[in-house]
Design brief:
The protein is built from 5 helices and no strands. By secondary structure, the protein is an all-alpha fold. It has one domain. The longest helix has 26 residues.
């Protein structure tokens, strides 16, 4: 999956919390969200910061971008957890702070080959490790 395909999939599955997402779909979406946030922060700083300093009221572009990408970000993260056979409720580990490390570990692992309880493999038929080496 390429960058454009990942962004299109993220918006096409805007609030889809079922099924599975590949590592590429998840990490390219995260990259898009991070770059988008950085760009909107720079634009907000250039256009809206007054002598009073930075406040949420002075960052309308970043606020709009965050609101637009919040639900699809949660959805793709949940689908990514499904790919490693974890329920989306594990996303609540973010609240603990330390749970973020476990979530990052799961989200960077290779997904389960074949279908699991959350749906079919998003990559289709995966190759066995012996076939990858050849």
């Amino acid at each position: 999956m390429g960058f454009g395909q990942a962004i299109a999939a993220g918006f096409a599955k805007y609030a889809v919390f079922y099924g599975r997402a590949s590592r590429a779909e998840f990490w390219l979406w995260i990259f898009f969200a991070a770059v988008g946030a950085a760009v909107t922060n720079v634009l907000d700083a250039a256009l809206f910061v007054h002598h009073s300093g930075v406040s949420p009221l002075n960052s309308p572009l970043d606020t709009i971008f965050t609101l637009i990408t919040l639900v699809p970000s949660l959805a793709v993260a949940t689908r990514r957890l499904h790919d490693v056979d974890r329920t989306g409720w594990w996303m609540l580990l973010i609240v603990t702070g330390i749970g973020i490390a476990l979530l990052l570990y799961w989200q960077s692992r290779e997904g389960m080959a074949g279908a699991n309880r959350f749906g079919p493999d998003p990559l289709g038929a995966r190759h066995s490790p012996q076939q990858r080496v050849a």
